[in-house]
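Audit log entry. Action: structure prediction of a protein-small molecule complex. Ligand: S-adenosylmethionine. The ligand was supplied as SMILES and no pocket hint was given, so placement is left entirely to the predictor. Protonation state taken as written. Sequence taken verbatim from the request; no trimming, no tag removal. Recorded inputs:
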Amino acid sequence: MKVKSNRIGDIFSYYFDILSKGYPATEAKILLKRLISYYLNVETYKVPDLVADQRVGESLLLDIHFGVKKLAEYQPIEYIIGETQFYEHRFFVDKSVLIPRPETEEMVDFLWKNSSAFVSKPQILDVGTGSGCIAIMLSLLLDASVSAVDISSAAINIARKNSNYHSVDIQFFNLDFLNTSSWQLLPSDLDIIVSNPPYVLDSEKTFMKSNVLDFEPSLALFVPDENPLLFYKAILDFSLSHLKPNGQVLLEINENLGEKTANLFRPYYKKIALIQDINEKNRFVFASGLLPQSFS
Ligand SMILES: C[S@@+](CC[C@H](N)C(=O)[O-])C[C@H]1O[C@@H](n2cnc3c(N)ncnc32)[C@H](O)[C@@H]1O
């Protein structure tokens, strides 16, 4: 069977039938609305009913056709259209960066609400910036001076594209944060260190959806089971020499390692909070105020 005509109404019904073979109907509908609205450059709610009689040309029909083909292979829609929304802002993404998650928006929200009272024009470092979503949003919300690190040069390119799109000035460093000799390149006297580092155990791969496993970068996700807190240990050590005594550290964490991650920081910080996300899972560790014996 072929699509009946080049009317959006007909295109939608045809591709909905195809997609609903691999997705629950509600999800198939949402994905198709997003795909078609992206190619038509109209708001999602208008698809399909408000634009049902609009007709599309050959090249747009092909875009939709190949987009649906990729969706049918379970490629994430964000990679297909090359963008996503984070904190209600547009961010470009490709397969070199993690698709920003809603939990991470909560981290930005937390700092926005808690840090403006703590210091004006904070100096912030984002470790493992990926698309740059955290660094860029904090720069937009906090009038902050922001630096950001990532080991992936492809990710840094995307983060740069996003910072140009949002007209913010971020200092990017393409380096391996686990290599302590690279720390001398990074700013000291920081007010805030923020990070959503890789934290999924290799052994947790079995519980993950194939659209994440097959398409998102492993470099952004996984840590060895033998040393699951390696990024948190490095961030802690780094903070002892690069954070101001009254500084703050906010980290996204593996929900199963909440207490362990918090306990790493306890001997060095005055206040530690283990914070839950909207789904009531342990998702963030917030540490503030270095204890006097911790300074180096
Ligand atoms: C979980 S992703 C977070 C991306 C983004 N901050 C976000 O929240 O959507 C972790 C990021 O850390 C980067 N990364 C992994 N190992 C690293 C290392 N050794 N040094 C610096 N960055 C690293 C990855 O390339 C990836 O972009």
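Audit: result stored. The mean pLDDT is 95. The pocket of S-adenosylmethionine is lined by residues 97-98, 100, 104, 128-131, 133-134, 149-152, 155, 176-178, 196-198, 219-220 (CB under 6 Å).
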